[in-house]
Amino acid sequence: MKQKTDVLQGTLALMVLKTLDVLGPLHGYGIARRIEQISGDLLAVNQGTLYPVLLKLEQEGAIDSEWGASENNRRARFYQLTKDGRKQLQAETQDWQQTAAIIGRFFDVKPEDLS
Questions:
Q1: In whole numbers, what is the pLDDT of the chain averaged over residues?
Q2: pLDDT tier at 114 (50, 70, 90 boundaries)?
Q3: What are the C-alpha distances in Å from 19 to residues 38, 104, 111?
Q4: Tens digit of each residue's pLDDT (9 = 90 or more) over 77-111
């Protein structure tokens, strides 16, 4: 049985932006489930953490929202990426790729590399 871990602080906004970029408009519950699904069910997205991130992203202009009907005909707020959100996603993606490359170097280093 897989143990789910919480999403690392500062990464949830990036995951939300990327999820909306790939899948288009989604409601909050759908975003959370898709992030968990993409992680191979290794991450757990807490609703109490997700909605403040969605609010922050909306206030920053990275996403927009509008009310609509969910798959089961319930009223839900659907979020979508904005032009500014795409720019933010691109910048954050580059930052994370650089960070991952730097950390990767530490896992690859051998004693002879440092002599």
A1: 91
A2: confident
A3: 9, 25, 40
A4: 999 999 999 999 999 999 999 999 999 999 998 88
Report residue 100 as tokens: 């991952």
* DSSP secondary structure string for all residues of 33-60: HHHHHHTTS-EE--HHHHHHHHHHHHHH
Where do the domains of the chain lie, and which CATH numbers do they carry? Answer: 5-109 (1.10.10.10)
pLDDT digits (tens, 9 = 90+) for 42-52: 999 988 999 99
- As beta bridge partners, residue 65 has 79
CA 115 – CA 94 distance, rounded (Å) = 31
Q: H-helix or E-strand containing 76?
A: strand 75-81
CB crowding 61-85: b at 16 or more within 10 Å, else e: ebbebeeeeeeeeeebebbebbeeb
